[in-house]
Each structure stands twice: as structure tokens, then as C-alpha cells.
Fold these 3 entries.
Entry 1:
Amino acid sequence: SSALLSLWRELEPELSELDEYGGGDYGQEDDVSEYLSELCDKLDETTLSRNDRDELLEEVIRYLKSGNAGMDDFLYDVAYATCKNDDDLRDLAERFEELKNSWPTDHARRIYRRIGDHKKYLELRALKMEYGMDYYDLATFYWETGEKDKALDIAIKGMTVGEGRMDELRLFLAERAKESGDRNAYLDYLFLQKTDRLTLSSYKEFKKECSNKEWEEYEPRIVDLLEKSDNVQSLKIYMHRKEYDKAIQYFIKISNHSYYRYMDSEILQIASRLENRYPEEILTFHKSSTGNLDTSTSRKDYRFKAEAVKRVRHVLVDVMKKPADWRKYVLPIKMKNMGRPAFQEEFAKVIPEWKELK
């Protein structure tokens, strides 16, 4: 016990400084987090005397109450590591409750549930029923304690009034419907889950779960979601469905966003898959991604622009077989930037025939 308290006293001055200034440099934060992790490891192997445990917890709780050191996760770990039985956990829960703050109260509630004090758990649970995860927590509690009808009622209510993340609640209800043999309800909940953030993966997963007849019912609903969406995942689904005419129209729509023009590698991959079918559209996209080619900037930016111009070259020369059009496009770019040696050097590294262009 005394050795562990000595370790705490060794780290505490730096922790106090972090708490006073609301954080510190990376080195200091790393040092304190390593000390706290070491303390946790040693606490896991040691039972503190009652007096030493009280002394350590009072210090830890003081910093948790402040919440200004940026070390709360590690401090909670230390607090839990002092607990060796249910009595210790109850004592810790009561200390957390005394802080009268949302996050410590959440910890207290979870402890009461863990040690089987259902009355205290429900008392604290009733204080906060706002998010989907709150309803999921209460629903699983009732399910585990055998009050299954109440669990389902809570979960269904959460689907209606809960806010924020709903994933666990939807999956809970989907699993219950599957267990009861209610195929329609199961698929409805699964559909909501897989389309909440529709991706190519979730699209495939849901389709795999459906029979052919079931897919005929849900497919139009997914298509409707695709038409209303505005992200690269929907474009990937169109490509997967081999609906290339829709894909290119959607590609044009979302590629107008600067993020997709300049940052997203997936868009470039899809562009390469569409270039043979729709070379004019993909050529326009690549030209739009070059940005301003008549301004001074950094070498890094020149290199980025050169890569974009190289993609224009690829479509004109390799796909459309129009080397003359490529020359007509690129020669003015070179000539306008003759007074920028850095520009010329970076483009020469990327464009094969750059130095020979005249």
C-alpha cells in the first residue's frame, strides 16, 4: 500500500499542473498517463489497506470532480482498480454519486447494475432517458432480469422518442423479432439499421439477408434512398448494380463538391472505371480538379496540380486517342508558367514529355 501511494505522490505534482492549466505539452501528458497506467497495473495485483484506499480515492475523486487535467479515463481506471469486491464497488458508486455530475453518475449507475442493486440502478436510470442508448440500456436490463414484455415496450418507445445513436436499439429489436419468428419485423428493423448510413457493404449485407421475393419489396425503397443521397457510397452502389448511366449522372452531381474533386481517392478510382464509357464527362472532371494553373504556390501544390494534369493527359492520349488535343491543352499551361522554375521542375517530374513540349 505504501509503495503504491508513493507512486501516486510521485506523479501527482505533474497531474496537479495539468489540472491547473487544463492540459500540458505532449511529453508531460504522456508521462502522467504512463504513470497512471503503471499505477493501475500494480493496483490490479495489490489490495490496499482501507485507510490507504480511502486516501488514494479521495485524491482521484478530487481530480475527477475538477475534470480539468484531461486524464479522466486513466483516473477512472485507477478508481476501479482499487475495487476488489462488491462492497468496494458500492463505495465507489456512492462516491461518484456525490459528485452530482452526469458522467460520474453514469459510472455509478453501471456499477449498481453490475453488483445487482436493481433499485439504485433504476433510480439513477430514471434521471436520464433521452438517447437511444439510454433506452437500449434499460431495455437490456429488463430483458436480462426476465421482464421481457417491459423490455420490448421500452425498446419500441426508444425507437420513437430516443435521440442520437440508435444502432444498438434497432439491432436489439431485430434480434428479438428474429427469435420470435416475426420475419417482417426483423427485416424492417434490419433495413433501418443497414440504411441509416447506407454503404456498399451494408447494401450487400441486407440484400444477402433477403430472399428474392423480399428483395423485390425492399429494393425500390433502397433505390429511393440512393436518389436522395449525396455521397460516394451511393455512387459505389450504382457501380455495383451496373447502372452506369445513373452512375455517371451521380458522379457529375457529387464531383461538383470541392472535397471530391481534390481529396477523395475513391472518386478517382471510380473515374478510372467510367472513363472508357464516358470519356468526355471524366475529362471534364479531371480538368476541373487541376485548380488555378496560373498562380504561384508551394511545390507541394504544384505537384498536386501536375498529378491532376497527368490524369487529363491519360484520358486524352490513352483513352480518347487524341494526342493533338492533349498538346493543344498542355502547351499553354507550360508557356504561361515559364517564369516559375519550381512549377516547371515539379511538372517535369510528373508529365513524361514535359521538357520536350514546345
Note: The chain is about 75% helix and 0% strand.
Entry 2:
Amino acid sequence: MPNPLADRDAFHVPAPGPYLLAHSAGCLPRVAEARLGSHYLAPWSARGGGAWETWLAEVDGFRAALAALLGGRAADYCPQANLSSGLSKLLAALPPPQGARRRWLIAEEAFPSLGFVLHQARRLGFELRMLPRGGEVADPATWQAEIDERVHGVLATHVHSNSGVVTPIEAIAATCAERGALCVVDVAQSAGVLPLDVATLGASAVLGSCIKWLCGGPGAGFIWLDPALTARLDPPDVGWFSHAEPFEFDIHRWQPAPDARRLWGGTPDIAPYVLAGESLRLLAGAGVAAIREHNLALQRRFVAALPPAWRSRVPLAGRGGTLCLAPGAALADVRRRLDALGAHYDQRGEVLRLSFHLWNDLAQAQALAAAFGPDAPLPVPAR
């Protein structure tokens, strides 16, 4: 298997210019494309229903690859279609809230899809409290002031998608543990670019997706569960793959799986996990620490090449893998220059988002800085 640090041709990279959308959809690894043919399509075409043995082994391989890259045991990972699905299943499987402890806490800057799930959880007896937008989510004290006897759980975003701000997960999780609340962590924007070990975060559950920095494509989501929490979960949304013995086929005996699989369900998707499993193994070969160092090296080169008015206004400390830049009045001009380079990037509100991954190089970082030309007004820092 090629080492992507040494071979950037390991990925299909869209043309014509720099691809800067790892925060949205990572590039397709060539080995993942090949594995989809050899371990999903070929067994299907040759053996039909006999392909299930190979297919289920691929899902097991996906869980093992997650554990190898992100820590914890493979048994504590359950495949999910996406983060929202995982959160919905988790909330419905929890014991009903008792007394005053009904509140779920989330930052208003969190990805809206997760907020939508928490809104709907009110029909389960929960309440929702949002930390107001613009608050200091990087300050543990902001969270500590809100986690009291009314808080059932905290949903903390590890890296915020529209600012790049890193949330102090370990401190939040410690406060939750001290005060009797659950801590659920969204690692969609950190998994694969920030080194992390789910087993040492102190979280009750971790939600993630392989579509972004993990380069695994859509549909390969996951939830990691602390085994102490798993034992408390009684999910209503189940199927034969949630069963302790999926191939027992006794309709009279329901026995939930003893591990995270109890949040799985009926007949599973296969193709997304074939793709993502091979992508995870490829990135593990490079190492997340090395991926992060490459990402930071390009961020530093980009900042160093910026006009002086910009350099001190683009923070790197306490940020994830994505540069979130607000050009203010220069937005249209900056976009015109980026488009002239053929750059692949996106915009959320007034913020431009650019992410460097293994397929990017120092020359691209240097060239991108020129789009923020010397005549551009002083930027507005993204929050």
C-alpha cells in the first residue's frame, strides 16, 4: 500500500487547481476505489448471496481500522450512516430522564444537523440549551458555568467547522464526570487531522464520519461508546444486526448485542464501509501526527506569504486543520483570485474555508496567499 506522504498520487485529486475541501469531502484514495471492486462488486458478481461472508468481514475490518486510527476497541464502534443517525439512536436508547436532569447543552456554532436532532429529542422528555453564538467555546470555564444539576448531557464539537476553533474536550468531559452528566463528542472535523484517542478523551460517546479528513466517502459514519454507557442502552430502533446472535433467527428471543453493535439495526450497508476501511488503513500508514504536521507546515507557509496586514489576523494556535478566513469588504476580490487559480474551496456566510491535506504542497500554499493581495483591506477574524 502506498504511503500517501511520499506519493500524493495515492488520491484522485479534482482538477484544475488546489483542492482545499478536506473539511467537506476528502479525495478518493485509489486503493479504496480498487477495494470496492475486489471486495464488494467482485464477490457479489461471482457469488451473489454468498458474498455476505466477505462483506461482513469488510465491516469488521472497518471497525478494526477505526480502532487502530482513533483508539479504543473495535467492539466499541458501531457503524452508522452519519452523525445525526448515531445521535438519534443514542438519545432514544437512553433511560428516560428523571427529575430536573433533562437538559442537553450544545454550542450554537455546532453543526446544525446535530441541533436538529436535539430539538426533536424534546419529545423524549429532554430540554435543549444552546451556548450563545460568539461565546468562548475554547474556554473550559464557559462550559463549566453551564454544567449543573439540570444537565443530562453535553454535546461538544471538537473542531468547529466555521471557525476552526478547537474545544477543550478533556476538560469538558472531566466536568461532566464530576457533575453526573454525559459527554458526547463530535469529531467530524478533527478525526484524521488532529491526533486523538477516543478512549482517553473521557467522553461517554464519540460521533464521527469518514467523508471529510478520513477520505472515506459518504455513508460511513460511526459511533464509539464507552462500555459503561453501552450497558445502560435499550434502543427501540433495532434489527437483526443489533442482536447478540444475528444468525440465531429466533423471533421469540430478543437479546441486545453486548457491545456497541446494539445501536446498529437491520440489514447493513456494505459499500461505504469497504471504501472507508481501506481509506482508514491508508491514512494509518501515514500517521495522523504526520498528517497534522504536513497540514500545519502548509498553514504556516500560507500565513508567511500573506500580505503583512493579514499575517497577525490569521490565528493558527487553538485551531484545527481548516483555515477559516473572513475577508470582509475584499470577499469578492479574494474569491475572484481563488477562482482564477482553479482552487476548490467553499464559503459559509462571510467565511472562506480552505483545508490542506496530503495532496497539497508548499507551492500551492504560497500561490494561494497571493489571492489575498496587498490591496485587500484588513480582514475580519472568523469566530
Note: Residues 376-383 have pLDDT under 50 and may be disordered.
Entry 3:
Amino acid sequence: MNPQFQTVEINGIKMDVDLRSATRIETVKVGTHVKVLVKSSYHEPKVRPGVVVGFEPFATLPTIIVC
């Protein structure tokens, strides 16, 4: 594994996090305000505000749902 990535567990879901751009948040729960990096193949990446609305514990790719 790349040394710039670390595996973290959130509510029983393990995710790989890029430590170069990650910030520490003590608690992530439904209703937490977050910033989301939206990448597009046609335009520059943009940072958008969002709110965590749920967690999906998929076995191969756990997902945080942000609205």
C-alpha cells in the first residue's frame, strides 16, 4: 500500500484515505456538513458544500452518501 494512504474505519466500514489532503474530524454522522471535491472530465475540479445523509456498507466499496 502507498505510504500516503491510510485505512480508517468509520462505523464499521473500512476506507483508504489520502493523507496529503485529509483533515481529521472526530465524528462523522448523518447531518455533518462536509466539503466535496467534484471532478469533471470537461472542467476544473470544484469544491462543493454538502451534508452527510447516509452510509452504505457495501462489501467492496463502502460509501458515504452526501447531498
Note: The chain has no helices and five strands.
